[in-house]
Amino acid sequence: MAETLTAKPTASTVEKQAFRDAMAHLGSAVNIITTDGPGGRAGFTASAVCSVTDSPPTLLVCLNRSASVYPAFTENQVLCVNTLADCHESLSNLFGGKTPMEQRFDAAEWSSLSTGSPILSDALVSFDCKITQVTQIGTHDILFCEAVAITRNDERHGLVYFDRRYHPLMRQSAC
Ligand SMILES: NC(=O)c1ccc[n+]([C@@H]2O[C@H](COP(=O)([O-])OP(=O)(O)OC[C@H]3O[C@@H](n4cnc5c(N)ncnc54)[C@H](O)[C@@H]3O)[C@@H](O)[C@H]2O)c1
Ligand SMILES: Cc1cc2c(cc1C)N(C[C@H](O)[C@H](O)[C@H](O)COP(=O)(O)O)c1[nH]c(=O)[nH]c(=O)c1N2
């Protein structure tokens, strides 16, 4: 586990709502981030996920520190990024807040791979990761996550969150 950095707050001329309205114009994949371990099983929906480097294979996940799941991720130090397919809209909403944890997990099939974090059975792709570094910016922690195992489903269609709504993302069919 490496250092935790804290950015100095700076005055911004952009209002929070204007920022969110602007961010709603960026389409993104939708993911259910899961963890399990001494801190308990937990999961939440995240669109703030991206690739950092392939050497070592690293993704980042932004997690609001006020989320109910925050203590579990902090304690477990492992997580799985489960990228959702077009059929997962209601599952995304379940993991998107307020629903009790057991009810979230009861709605789908799960397995485990290397770290013990729940792997969503029909996810588009699952990155089983250990958290290697954490940086604090404003309300969120940026979790840098090194993939230790990956499962892929090359047949399913994708799911995109854009303009505050879900959209299916179709694979190009072979011609
Ligand atoms: N990064 C995040 O924490 C994040 C991202 C997406 C959605 N959400 C949450 O999901 C719910 C629905 O979101 P929505 O997209 O339908 O409408 P919204 O108006 O709350 O958000 C619009 C866009 O702004 C960004 N955003 C929203 N809340 C943020 C936050 N606290 N920190 C950083 N960026 C944020 C995201 O890109 C989001 O898609 C809200 O409660 C929202 O806070 C959080
Ligand atoms: C489409 C979409 C996308 C995101 C979210 C929601 C939705 C619907 N949420 C919010 C997050 O899922 C929610 O705060 C957690 O489920 C925690 O909620 P509880 O505190 O358990 O109610 C979210 N939260 C976060 O910290 N980082 C993120 O990238 C996202 N992205």
Automatic annotation (TrEMBL):
Reactions catalysed, semicolon-separated, are: FMNH2 + NAD(+) = FMN + NADH + 2 H(+)
Entry's Gene Ontology BP terms: nitrogen utilization; uracil catabolic process
User: Which Pfam families does the record cross-reference, listed alphabetically?
Assistant: Flavin_Reduct
Kindly list the GO molecular function terms attached to this UniProt entry. Answer: FMN binding; FMN reductase (NADH) activity; riboflavin reductase (NADPH) activity
What SUPFAM superfamilies does the database record attribute to this sequence? FMN-binding split barrel
- Tell me the enzyme class: oxidoreductase
Tree of life domain: Bacteria
Listed A to Z, the keywords are:
Flavoprotein, FMN, NAD, Oxidoreductase
Task: List the EC numbers from the record.
Answer: 1.5.1.42
Task: Please report the stretch or stretches of sequence annotated as the Flavin reductase like domain.
Answer: 23-168
Which NCBIfam families does the UniProt record give? RutF
Which PANTHER family is this protein grouped with?
FLAVIN REDUCTASE (PTHR30466), FMN REDUCTASE (NADH) RUTF (PTHR30466:SF1)
Q: What family name appears in the similarity comment?
A: Belongs to the non-flavoprotein flavin reductase family. RutF subfamily.
Question: What HAMAP family does UniProt report for this protein, alphabetically?
Answer: RutF
What's its job? Catalyzes the reduction of FMN to FMNH2 which is used to reduce pyrimidine by RutA via the Rut pathway.
Designated name of the protein: FMN reductase (NADH) RutF
